[in-house]
Amino acid sequence: METTELKVEMVGIHEKRLRKCLSKLKGIEKVEVDGNSQKVAVTGYAHRNKILKAVRRAGLKADFWSAQNELLNVYASSSFQNLRFNNFNFF
């Protein structure tokens, strides 16, 4: 059994579409979606290229998760915590 991690650009409504397209693949055991970091972990016996192809067919932008994505996610989450515009806090 293998775990494949993907970076998928999505909003809340895309999660249902993502789970639906992955459930059609043979060999998928579990799908974990983290909406904040846009990370999807797929566990099963399916080949990682077939998983990526299925997600892209569903109309979502996706790529394999890398260490660079992890660093960008940490930087983005820390830099937007104190975002202010004309003395109004947005987050």
Secondary-structure blueprint of this entry?
Layout: E1 2-9, H1 14-23, E2 28-34, E3 39-44, H2 48-57, E4 61-64, H3 67-79, E5 84-85, E6 88-89
Antiparallel strand pairs: 1-3, 1-4, 2-3, 5-6
GO biological process, one term: plant-type hypersensitive response
Domain HMA: 1-63
Subcellular location: Membrane
Describe this structure in words.
This is Heavy metal-associated isoprenylated plant protein 44. It is found in: Membrane. It comes from Sesamum angolense. Residues 1-63 form the HMA domain. One of its GO terms (molecular function) is metal ion binding. The chain is of the alpha+beta class and 91 residues long. The protein is 36% helix and 32% strand. The chain has helices spanning 14-23, 48-57, 67-79; strands at residues 2-9, 28-34, 39-44, 61-64, 84-85, 88-89. The strands form two sheets. The protein has a four-stranded antiparallel β-sheet with strand order 2-3-1-4, with helices on one face. A two-stranded antiparallel ribbon has the order 5-6. The protein is globular. It starts with a strand and ends with a strand. The model has no long low-confidence stretch (mean pLDDT 81).
